[in-house]
Amino acid sequence: MSEAVPEAMSVQPTTTSAFAEGQFLPISALQHLLFCERQCALIHLEGLWVDNRLTAEGRLLHKKVHDRGDELRGSARLVRGLELTSQRLGLYGIADVVEFIDRAPPTPIEYKRGRPKTYKADTVQLCAQAFCLEEMLGQNVPEGAIFYGKTRRRLAVAFDAKLRAATEAAAERLHSLIRGGVTPKAQREPKCDRCSLLGLCMPDLLRPRATAGRYLQMTVAELLGQRSDVQP
What we know:
7-stranded mixed beta sheet, Lambda Exonuclease, Chain A, single chain
């Protein structure tokens, strides 16, 4: 399940680029895209959103980080809630924390409520922030970090050529999806159970040999907190 839609959704880029005003997309949409293209389209094409416990916890974590404000720790300056824009990728957002230490390159730090993922959504999102910082500051950003709430540890992320290419490809796919204006069809997968949009997406309706009656039985059983033995 992806994180809650961050406050970066309200940020609008003010610079001009190959992307016209209104075509810039939130960095958070990359995570939605890499989790599920249908979920991404439901959120960013159709304007749908539903919270569950996981997304609510994620949003509260981001708010807690941003509310702490900027901070000096010895030679390090921590800037929280920094607005980001990439003209080249057509992306905008807000960095949880950007760490500046003397003359060293800035380090973007993203906070996540859970654990490291097996797919690249978190690292691609962070790499997109690095692309923004490089454009905005005119200097190379070689690495960043992700702090995971479950492990209480900071995971270093190197922005190597492979991750940069994956991030650029994801940004291109995202713009293509939004330009196309078509929401992909639902496909039932195990990860659907972690998605807060499950009730709106309704992938079970498209299972082979499914009937409305069987689906209704399953839905009623779930609402009653029972385990349904009915298989679609």
